[in-house]
Amino acid sequence: MNVYCGLDWAENHHDIALVNEAGERLAKQRITDDAAGYKILLDLLVAHGDTPQAPIPIAIETSHGLLVATLRTGTRQVYAVNPLSAARCRDRHAVSGKKSDHGDALVLANILRTDMAAHRPLPQDSELARAITVLARAQQDAVWARQQIANQVRSLLRYYYPAALQAFLGKQNGLTRDDARIILTIAPTPARAAKLTTTQLQSALRRSGRSRGIEAEAGRLKEIFRGTYARHPQPVEDAMGLQLAALLLQLDAACTAADRLAQAVEEAFLKHPDAQILLSFPGLGVQLGARILAEVGDDPTRFVDARALKAYAGSAPITRASGKKTYVGRRYVKNHRLMHAGFLWAFASLKCSKGANGHYRRRRAAGDWHAAAQRNLFNRFLGQLYYCLQSRNLFDEHQAFASAA
To answer: What is the dihedral of CA 365, 370, 374, 376, to 10 degrees?
Structure first.
């Protein structure tokens, strides 16, 4: 007799429901979110036929946390059911619209009983791949947080400090540069910046790690800071300087966190056996390659074919047909982190791959907009990546874009 388990999770407790093939509820239980509760869950599964050779599959609405890590030990299949899918299936069991934790656990168990083939279990990635996933996502979040704070600094500088924008925004990395943050820290107001001497500016540039062109850069900054600009009254300007100083503390912390996580990502990614395959693709560096690996994983059985990988990434178009009407458009339900990395990958490959650039140009000539052409190029790269990972071959541009000839 096959048994299926549904698990409705919460912060402090979890509800369990077990059903058989006929849909009869065999057991229900509420456990706490701690080691004692996890042991009760495992004992309950064993009592209903769970063995290492034939573990009971479990459906849950999350893929993270200690509970999921406990369930993923061994060969057990854990299905992370989308909460939207679970909500749609709830109406099949309670048309009145009632909702309860025990009822949701029962719905999840019945989803496995009736529609297991329509859901994908969590991949059996290696421990190194899971660690790369944690680090790559954390580094991506740190980069986004850094940019968000930098945008706040830029918005504030527009109100009272236009000289700082003129001095740093035209350079690479803008306000997140070390020299920009150091100089703005010692001169958070236009009045203090205008009083900086050449020696002070040179000293600040050296503290930021700069070793070349210090004299010329100091002269440029001095000329900009001593220019003529509109000014607020001094008390208002000083208050905005204090606000800028507070934002700079947050920006320094965000920059430090992003840099340290980037170093950790590089160390972990280069240890993975798939790293050399990913780095052989044009436009993929260590950080971007780690983000791709973090979302794709290293389980060779996760995707049955390249089309499944493309649908997961959202690069493959979706068709809606009804009667005489047919619509082909982009996917909205997808792995957004993988799609974000895909756009960066496609854009970076245009300068280092003639085949990728030619493919992009042909798509634009066919009528695609910039984003659509990039998405199509990313879709093609994913098919090639799937082949290279399955065959353990490096990327070969002559074979990848041979049809262009």
So the answer is: -50
Total-model pTM: 0.87
Tokens 């996933």 locate to: 133
At residue 325, the pLDDT reads 87
The total number of structural domains that make up the chain: 3
Taking the C-alpha atoms of residue 263 and residue 261, their distance in angstroms, rounded to an integer, is 5
- The dihedrals phi and psi of 31, each to the nearest 5 degrees, come to -120, 160
Cα–Cα distance for residue pair 223/212, rounded to 1 Å: 19
30 with 49, same domain? Answer: yes
Average pLDDT value over all residues in the chain: 92
Q: Is residue 124 part of a domain?
A: no
Q: Cα dihedral sign for 393, 396, 399, 404?
A: positive
Q: Which of 357, 370, 376 is nearest to 314 (CA)?
A: 376
In angstroms, the CA 249 to CA 149 distance is 10
pLDDT value of position 403: 65
At 164-176, the pLDDT tens digits run 999 998 888 889 9
Residue type, 381: F
Report the distance separating Cα 204 and Cα 291, nearest Å: 35
Residue 216 has which token pair? 């010329």
Of all residues in the chain, the percent with pLDDT exceeding 90 is 73
Other CB atoms within a 10 A radius of the CB of residue 137 amount to: 17
Same domain for 254 and 328, yes or no, is no
Kindly state whether residues 185 and 282 are assigned to the same domain. no
pLDDT bin (cut points 50, 70, 90) of residue 285 is very high
CA dihedral 319, 321, 326, 332 (to 10 degrees): -30
Q: Is residue 16 part of a domain?
A: yes
CATH, residue 14: 3.30.420.40
Task: List, edge to edge, every strand of the sheet that includes 78-80.
Answer: 25-32, 13-20, 3-9, 58-60, 78-80
| Residue whose pair of structure tokens reads 């990913």 in the numeric block | 278
- For residues 170 and 230, membership in a common domain is answered with yes
pLDDT the model gives residue 363: 94
d(CA 179, CA 173): 11
Six token digits for residue 272: 């993975």
